Amino acid sequence: MSDPLVIFTPSGKRGRFPVGTPVLTAARQLGVDLDSVCGGRGICSKCQVQPGFGEFAKHGVTVARDALSDWNAVEERYRSKRGMIDGRRLGCQAQILSDVVIDVPPESQVHKQVIRKSAAEREIAMDPATRTLLVEVAEPDMHEPSGDFERLQAALREQWGVERVEADLSILRRLQPALRKGGWKVTVALHRGNHDAAPRILDLWPGFFEGPIHGLAIDLGSTTIAAHLCDLRDGRVLASSGLMNPQIRFGEDLMSRVSYAMMNPGGDVEMTRAVREAIDRLAAEIAAEAGVDPASIYELVFVCNPVMHHLLLGIDPVELGQAPFALATGSSLSLDARDLELSAVNPAAQVYVLPCIAGHVGADCAAVALAEEPQKSKDMVLIVDVGTNAEILLGNEARVLACSSPTGPAFEGAQISSGQRAAPGAIERVEIDAATKEPRFRVIGCDLWSDDPGFAEAAGPITGICGSGIIEAVAEMRMAGLLDARGLIGSAEQTGSPRCEPDGRTHSYLLHDASAAGGPRILVTQGDIRAIQLAKSALYAGAQLLMDEIGIEKVDRVVLAGAFGAHISPKHAMVLGMIPDVPLEKVLSAGNAAGTGARIALASVAARDAIEELVHRIHKVETAIEPRFQEHFVAANAIPHATAPFPCLRALVSLPEPAFNSGGGSERRRRRG
């Protein structure tokens, strides 16, 4: 008579096992995704399964009610204390007696699925580097003398298949009391290092520890630092927060900071100290927001551009400011948090820094690639991470290219006359009536438009205009005929709008006037237009370079990444000429894809291996030394573009073609004079 057949769902894995084999043992031997922290001792309840009874035609088996061993005292004790869904069994206690179908519910799977909703839904398989394990250690024996740590190592090897475990002195100091208090059982927080590094014990507790362990996924940008506090057991985001990068005081763009380091001895040390202190403060604040102990943070994952990468690590970035833009290292890094002087997290916390792609294309771009997976795309996708330094990816399953483009901080509200960071009171949406030339707008923190009843009371003081607001304002001015294709604002006489005011030798457009109540006059100036033109031209030129390199004239799909990218209107971005012409429904937002990539790397060791392999296959195009960049940049100065026809856009939007000159007269008159 053959051994009983066991079929696991949803995996479909099956095998025959001797009568009396525990379900958990069968699952492990078949490689079924069934969790267990306590090692099968009936303590953790992670291995709950749902047996199925009756006829299963699909599998060709009929399962009897007595296919598993009877409910036992361990299961009854667990159910009476903590409760358990009717019909479920503990896989470590239930034994196989005859053919059976076993379902592993989602909460019992190790690789729990976290769904990320942005451009497309995608699953993140939980496979964290740090996890907790319950270990039963043999008691000391005078006849077989060995140290407690050596017996812990042996127990980890026998019970969990973990080899070559390391622990620092602080763990060794606490090991003996913990073992004796826990009755020779301890729970360890074990960190699997990258590649050939030996696993390390980061913490330990007497007996069975069920408390949470946390990780931080940090997107270290040149303007802002964003962090996600995640539960390392299931990947849930418990809190998200951010703050301004204090290095802004040394320069708003990356090259300004490199220049600061070049011109000021010790300037790099100063910037490193500032950013590390900010990260430490952010870690403490986000833990407080989530109501967790910051000492429960055992892992941090960083994504950042190359200059931020070097300054975080305490490496002078001067070589990144001059050709050939050499990185000190582009490989991924595994460090102790204390190496970065981070004290707000657990003293044993580990840091993983994603690999950089090249001297101007950093770990943040690698994180975007990890999140958006252009190498798996059937169609040609352009991914743009919009920020102070735009990271651009172009490709499909055949080939992926990358470059960075120095857009500057205008898209984030900097270098704009009434610009500000995104905050309550900032104008974020703008519409201008093409007939009357009158504007209406929305501000952050209020769902009403400025011409809706009750707007003034609901919106509060209007303080300025943020990046998405200035983009929409410029695009709307172009569609309303207030701005010509070269980016010049017309006079009141030329445009028919008294909102176009003289401003020296140029003109400005009055968007909002609160001066009567002591508030600001918010204008879009000619200088603002120029700043946006420079930024969008750099972005478009970088994308065009990649298209040249791959040999295509159009892309199939555009993905706007970055927190800022999530708030850009695709129509306005296209009118402005920020991105190549595609049907508007093919312009998608991925939100903060770099931050998502950091979360994926925090959740999965396999994902770290995958991105480390992918960065070697991404071809880097260096915009700084590419002669065609300037040619593309100049052509992209026009709104939307000097030579590209933009057929998809023009099928949807009518763009007037006025021609103004800087002195306020018409182009025709200026030429005659």
What class do helices, strands and sheet pairing give? alpha/beta
Mean pLDDT: 88
List unreliable stretches of 5+ residues: 111-122, 666-673
For the record, the count of structural domains works out to 5
Query: Count of DSSP helices?
Result: 18
- CATH class (first level) name of the largest domain: Alpha Beta
Largest sheet features: 6 strands, mixed
CATH topology group of the largest domain? Nucleotidyltransferase, domain 5
Strand content: 15-25%
Number of strands: 31
Distance between the termini: 106 Å
Shape: elongated
Describe this protein's structure.
The structure is a single chain. Mean pLDDT is about 90; it is low at about 110-120 and about 665-673. The protein is α/β, with parallel strands linked by helices. The protein is elongated. It has 18 helices and 31 strands. The protein has a 6-stranded mixed sheet, sandwiched between helices. The chain folds into 5 domains: about 5-110, Ubiquitin-like (UB roll); about 130-205, Ubiquitin-like (UB roll), CATH 3.10.20; about 235-355, Domain of unknown function (DUF4445) (Nucleotidyltransferase, domain 5, 2-Layer Sandwich); about 370-410 and about 530-650, 2-Layer Sandwich (Nucleotidyltransferase, domain 5); about 410-525, no CATH class. A hairpin with a 2-residue loop joins strand 26 and strand 27.
